[in-house]
Amino acid sequence: MTTTVQTSLELAPVERPPTGLAADIRAARIVCHRELLRWLKDRRRLAAGLVQPLLWLFVLGTGLSRVVSVGSENVSFRTFLFPGVLATSVMFTAVFSGVSVVWDREFGFLREMLVAPIRRTSIMAGKCVGGAIVATAQAVIILALAGLADVPYSPVLMIELLAVLFLASLSITAFGLLLGARVANIQSVMPVIQTVITPMMFLSGALYPTSGLPVWLAFATKINPVTYAVNPMRHVVFSHLDLTPAAARVLDPGLTWNGWPVPFALQLVILAGLGLLVFAIAVKRFSKTD
């Protein structure tokens, strides 16, 4: 005689992961938080990011102040360099934050994020915002030394500089993400950064006045995206200094297109627009990642 025993198994309900805007924001916040934790725990990265701006500002600025004329005896070369040093500090830190996606890919963390049931746009947005916060926070240390460069500690000036710094950080981090999407391995990171970023720094007018430049060099500065980060910062700084009209024309000549002066607000719009465009291209590139 055969006895049949029937056993009923209860299946645990499978919950579908939440989707929508709230889930995307949560995913971006988690990725951003990871970027901040990684930066805070890496003290060598923090120290290394400060060495170059300090060398530019106090070693180069002091050394060249005796031989370089910047158009006014009341303005030192360090003062002129200060906004450019802020911009370059943000540029290098933001690019490295974006390119860090290469390390994530190399060690497998990027694949884990990409297979998660979240949009890749939210992952890239989290890395972009995290990198921008890191770059801005590191630039704040340089900003705290403004008095040593004869830049006044005006609250309005500091707030305006922080706003421009954060906008520039967002756009440049997005550019770093695009570079990270194109770089195949860790060994190629530094050569790519040196080849792309260094010319952009020198062609932005961060280290020299842009008035009276040769035609070819003036054209190169106008088509350089970093110029639209450096020039607004310089305008913000020198608008709070007591300068003669002649000195202002030399130190802060502004940006012109075929003789037409580009408004300050339009320069910021261009910077933001370039950042959005590069971010969209980076997201599309990562969407094709296996």
Describe this structure in words.
By secondary structure, the protein is mostly helical. The chain has one domain. The protein has helices at residues 21-41, 43-64, 77-99, 101-106, 109-114, 120-143, 155-182, 189-202, 215-222, 227-238, 245-251, 264-287, and strands spanning 256-257, 260-261. It has a two-stranded antiparallel sheet. Strand 1 and strand 2 form a beta hairpin. Helix 3 runs antiparallel to helix 10 (227-238) and helix 7 runs antiparallel to helix 10. The radius of gyration is 24 Å and the shape is elongated. 37% of the residues are buried. The mean pLDDT is 82.
Helices, strands, pairings?
Layout (H helix, E strand, L loop, with lengths): L20 H21 L1 H22 L12 H23 L1 H6 L2 H6 L5 H24 L11 H28 L6 H14 L12 H8 L4 H12 L6 H7 L4 E2 L2 E2 L2 H24 L3
Antiparallel strand pairs: 1-2
* Poorly predicted spans: none
| Helix vs. strand class | mainly alpha
As for the number of domains, it is 1
What's the arrangement of strands in the largest beta sheet? 1-2
Number of strands: 2
Distance between the termini: 58 Å
Q: Multimeric state of these chains?
A: single chain
**Rg, nearest Å:** 24 Å
Q: Provide the helix percentage.
A: 55-70%
Q: Please provide the ordered H/E string of secondary-structure elements.
A: HHHHHHHHHHHEEH
Q: Estimate the global geometry from the Cα principal axes.
A: elongated
Determine the strand fraction and express it as a percent band. under 5%
Largest beta-sheet details: 2 strands, antiparallel
SS summary, helix count: 12
Overall pLDDT? 82
